[in-house]
Amino acid sequence: MAWIVQRSEDVTAFVHSRRARRLTEEFTERARGLAAELYVRACELHRLNQELRQAHARERQVAVACRKPCSRTPT
Questions:
Q1: 33, 31, 37: which is closest to 45 by C-alpha?
Q2: Torsions phi, psi of 8, nearest 5?
Q3: Distances 43 to 31, 49, 50 between C-alpha atoms, Å
Q4: How far is CA 62 from its chain centroid?
Q5: What is the top-level taxon of the source organism (predicted)?
């Protein structure tokens, strides 16, 4: 005599949890990458803002220096 035993279970929740875990790991890795890119960009913007402030200060100094000789009236 031979028996055939077949067992079925609903594995939907298991498959969904594995997929969710994998997606969460992928999302976490992607978020870390984006955070690193954002940090690099923020540092670059900070540096560029400093350069812009310095250039603006130099421009003001030149403008003030140019006004001094022009504002003198001959005596």
A1: 37
A2: -125, 140
A3: 18, 10, 11
A4: 36
A5: Bacteria
Per-residue tokens: 22: 């994998």
Among candidate residues 51, 47, 28, 50, the one with its CA nearest the CA of residue 39: 47
Side chain identity, residue 4: I
**CA distance linking residue 30 with residue 56, whole number of Å:** 38
* Residue with the two structure tokens 């030149």: 62
pLDDT one-digit tens code per residue, 39-49:
999 999 999 99
Q: How far apart are CA 68 and CA 75, in angstroms?
A: 16
3-state SS class at 9: coil
- Mean pLDDT score of the chain: 87
